[in-house]
Write a structure and sequence with these properties.
- With 339 residues, the chain is α+β, with helices and mostly antiparallel strands.
- 60% of the residues lie in helices and 19% in strands.
- It has a 6-stranded antiparallel beta sheet, with no helix packed on it.
- It starts with a helix and ends with a helix.
Amino acid sequence: MNRLQKYIIHNLSTLFISIFLPLFAIASVIFLIKLATYTAVIQLTIWEMTKLYLFVLPEILFYTLPVTFFIAATLSLFKLSNDNEIVVIFSLGVHPKFILKTLFKPAFILSLLLFFNFLFLFPHATVLSSNFVSYKKSEAKFNLSASEFGHKFGDWLLYLGNENGDGTYGNVFLFNKNKEEEILIGAKQAQVINDAGILRLKLTSGEGYSYSKDTFSQINFETMFINDTMKTDLTQYRSPLEYWLSNDRAESKRHMMITDTLLSLFPLISLFLVAAIGIVHVRHQKAKVYLYLFLGVLIFYGSVLGLQSIFVYYTIPLVATVWSLITYMLYRKIIVARF
């Protein structure tokens, strides 16, 4: 029996890898095209594009692994049926439930990995990706051009006389006005320094003037720093539990929780359907395995997405229970009654 289990698992793993790699490559290309749209707003290096891809990697794996297992498990049994090995197995007195028990272990492990993926890894990766994009957008807002009016640096109006080739600017003027006083600063040279989200303007060799109704003052300086913290809409994140329980994007997270829970259960609750579709008698049955695979995935995903607006969180036990009962009845009628 151990050899038979290893043989079935070997067939499953071979098909799983051959199906997973193309699906993963297609999903990766789609997500990379989506990430490339960010370059219309922000500038990204190859390393930054790689970081964004790593942030969406848990999502890519989550949406490819359940479907891959369902297809691979079904086709592995279908291959054994075409080679008449299933008939030999049943002729030796092996019950169909032995095959289900063999497939249960990898399905259970995969479901655990999927739950861990969307409950723990996904919140972390989503927050990192969102904060990274927000940071880059805020950084992109501070694009300076020499000899142009309208630049702002925090509360300061900024004018740059000319741009040097080494990343510095010459003939720089800053102006700040409030109810009590006005401040004017002029410098021969300025350099913008980005230090972990804090923009720092380094002024060299300049003068500063401050005047109000009662006073007028002047200072000369060799070096002056003016700081401005970029206003970035960063998501605060401490733990996955806090992420799921927070009210931020509550509607989206509710949809995600329902969908991802059922997709995590999909490998387990579809084992009866895997056996009903994959196990055939090639002499007496016309196999339509690919049509049934397509219909199975379509009906399950359609039920998950379509019933959420009506039953909300009750969709999870409803779909899981009904799907298990229907597929079990098909398994009893098609497989157990015949083999």
